[in-house]
Amino acid sequence: MGAFRLGRTTGLPVHECWLRVTDWPAHAAQVPLTAVSVASPPPTGAGTVFVVRSAFGRLGFDDPMEVVAWEPPSAGRPGRCRLEKRGRVITGWAEIEVREKGSGSVVLWVEELRFPWLPAALDPLVSRVGRRVFGRALDGILGAGGGASGASEGSGADIGRCRGYGVRSRPSPLEVAHMARQLRSVGLEFVESAPLRLVFSAQVSASPQALYAALADDVAGWPGWFTAVTAARAVDDGAGREIRLKGGTVFTETVLAREPDTRYAYRVDQTNAPGLRALLEEWRITPAASGARVRWTFAADGPAPLRLALRLGRPGLGRAFRDAMRNLDRRLARSPGI
């Protein structure tokens, strides 16, 4: 369990401050690689459900949340909101309080994050990461015209000293598309030697031939079964690929292996995804008694925090892969000629 507490003072009037901190999609604009969708009709109130989608490349997971208490600020009374996390990867809760202070307001944010599959020894790290990520997001939300200041933070029941992260906002999609960085050029041996290797497997009813064709020959069809992919196209007569993902992440790739019905691999040469130093993905296909077995290896290099974050998200990433394989299997069953 990772617990943390944040406090912010802002020049925003209390009602404007309340509207900002409870504008759930606005939170995603401050946290890279995330998107928020509200599943309930407006207005927000007890029972409202929204889903935070966190994704890195083609890997991601959903973090559904429900508003279980909702008390907007009124004369002489602070506003209070409590959220319960309903996901399988992350559970816990968050409480937000917005209180009037002179002509401005004070925000208090307390959150508890639980990763059921993480050892308790990592709780302090979860708390530190949570404080930093949510602190920056809160500063960005309040800072757009509000002048957030007096940032205080702590873990558990303590509020620590002021640190003031400053205002930070995510670039627009147009800016992101032009921020691609060159990654290290790696070969197929990187599949086995990469500092981070995430390996997932699944069995499908489709034949190895149909599965390989969907992966390697029908690149443009990827958005039809891998929901994180919004656009895909082959370039240079199939020697390369250009991929765009939800949230604006882009990949320019070189195909390294095309072995019919058995192997398909590609290296990312350029991307705007932060932190990556090298990335290679390999798809291995083997015949099975009633179809084929596919193994996907995500081989990457990056700073230690990035590698840790990807390892922590492994259960959710595995679910995303299995969902994609089920989607593809159904797609091939409906249209064998794809």
Strand content: 35-45%
Specify the structural class. Answer: alpha+beta
The total count of helices amounts to 8
Oligomeric form of this entry?
Answer: single chain
What Rg, in angstroms, do the CA atoms define? 22 Å
Secondary-structure element string? EHHEEEEEEHEHEHEHEEEEEEHH
Widest sheet: strand ordering = 2-3-4-5-6-7-1-8
Helicity range: 25-40%
Shape: elongated
Profile the largest sheet: 8 strands, antiparallel
What is the average of the pLDDT values?
83
Separation of the first and last Cα atoms:
46 Å
List low-pLDDT spans.
154-178
Beta strands, count: 16
Description:
The chain is of the alpha+beta class. The protein has helices at 14-21, 24-28, 123-146, 173-177, 190-193, 208-217, 304-312, 314-334; strands spanning 2-10, 34-38, 49-56, 59-71, 79-86, 91-101, 104-114, 149-154, 181-182, 196-204, 229-235, 240-245, 250-259, 263-271, 278-288, 291-301. The strands form 2 sheets. Strands 2-3-4-5-6-7-1-8 form an 8-stranded antiparallel β-sheet. Strands 9, 10, 11, 12, 13, 14, 15 and 16 form an 8-stranded antiparallel β-sheet that branches. The longest helix is centred in the middle third of the chain and has 24 residues, at 123-146. It is elongated and about 70 Å long. It starts with a strand and ends with a helix. Mean pLDDT is 83; it is low at 154-178.
